[in-house]
Specification:
The chain is of the alpha/beta class. It folds into 2 domains: about 160 residues, Bordetella uptake gene, domain 1 (D-Maltodextrin-Binding Protein, domain 2); about 120 residues, Periplasmic binding protein-like II (D-Maltodextrin-Binding Protein, domain 2, 3-Layer(aba) Sandwich), CATH 3.40.190. The protein is built from 11 helices and 11 strands. Strands 1, 2, 3, 4, 5, 6, 7, 8, 9, 10 and 11 form an 11-stranded mixed sheet that branches. Helix 2 crosses helix 9 and helix 4 packs across helix 11.
Length: about 350
């Protein structure tokens, strides 16, 4: 901060009293502009448009809607959520990257954002260069589950059984190229199993058919599966995260059951278009940070099954790059294809 020199004498003063007061006011104004702008409404209170390239009722949709009121309070502006699903998230994301660069429109993307470049041939944007990551808001764990009819209670028992009956078992997913597909494909690839993939249109139909035994296996989110696991309708074989999950304390990780390095979770991340100014990036990041300090939003996200992350923008950008490279290798190893 610039420091004003003291006056030498009343006659040789560098500033008159009026000039000094004006200079002080200007300095205070500049300092205020440099502070986090979470309390100052963008665009004089105009709504913040949040595009979700995912369907209503999805995990990310529920999470963002659960914290929207707190985010609105933190930013000092209304928050309007718009679902634009389609093509694995490409349809909605295309709108995000073409949005104004003034912070009036952002989006919330998930794992599929860094998966899509490896599974789709033609994407009308660069998944890394055309966005500005704001933060990794949170992540939710997955679990490998089996219908009780499968004679296996651990990952090692499942591997042994599957190898004794190649081509007999199948696993379902929420759709070709989705993160649940890749999670199961990672397992099948690393364990070197012959198990058939059956894609569904979403998590609901997938869960119904695993419960009904039409498919024997699947990687699913922990939150919607927990009650079925507790009742015995599903059998949890291993969680996909690097450490055990608090809601399933008795279920070991897949990594500790013979597949070291196996780690995957479902994350959500607010992003803006490329070229978002540093001031707007800071304002939006601080807005999410302030919102998550409010019990209403914090508890709601935890209730949705998320672990709160809130990584700074630069760390979020680095994470996007590393995950894109990692998922590209997963897709290649598992020979994942989307028609």
């Amino acid at each position: 901060m610039t420091t004003l020199a003291p006056a030498i004498s009343s006659s040789r003063s560098l500033f008159t009293r009026r000039q000094a007061l004006a200079a002080s006011a200007a300095a205070l104004g500049a300092a205020a502009w440099c502070l986090p702008r979470t309390a100052r409404a963008q665009g004089d209170g105009k709504p913040l448009r949040v595009i979700l390239p995912l369907s209503a009722g999805s995990g990310a949709d529920g999470a963002i809607r659960a914290i929207s009121n707190s985010l609105s309070k933190a930013l000092g502006q209304p928050v309007v959520i718009e679902n634009l699903p389609g093509a694995g998230g490409i349809t909605g994301t295309a709108q995000i990257v073409r949005a104004p660069k003034d912070g009036s429109v952002i989006g919330v993307v998930s794992n599929n954002h860094v998966v899509n470049p490896s599974v789709y041939k033609n994407i009308p944007f660069d998944s890394l260069a055309d966005i500005t990551p704001i933060t990794i808001l949170g992540a939710t764990p997955f679990v490998l589950v089996a219908h009780p009819g499968v004679p296996a209670r651990t990952v090692q028992e499942l591997i042994a059984y599957a190898k004794s009956k190649p081509g007999v078992l199948n696993y379902g997913s929420s759709g070709n190229g989705t993160i649940l597909h890749l999670g199961a494909a990672m397992f099948v690839d690393q364990a070197r199993l012959d198990i058939k993939h059956i894609p569904y249109r979403g998590m609901g139909p997938l869960m119904n058919d695993i419960l009904g035994g039409q498919v024997q296996l699947g990687v699913v989110a922990v939150a919607p599966a927990a009650a079925h696991i507790k009742s015995g309708a599903l059998r949890a074989l291993g969680v996909t995260t690097g450490s055990r999950v608090a809601s399933l304390p008795g279920v070991p990780t897949i990594a500790e059951q013979g597949l070291p390095g196996f780690e995957l979770d479902g994350w959500i991340a607010p992003v803006g278009p490329a070229g978002l100014s540093k001031a707007e990036l800071a304002r939006l990041y601080n807005g999410f940070k302030a919102a998550m300090e409010m019990p209403e939003a914090h508890d709601a996200l935890i209730a949705q099954g998320y672990e709160i992350k809130l990584t700074p923008p630069e760390q979020a950008a680095a994470f996007f790059k590393s995950e894109a490279a990692r998922m590209a290798q997963v897709v290649k190893n598992a020979n994942v294809k989307v028609d």
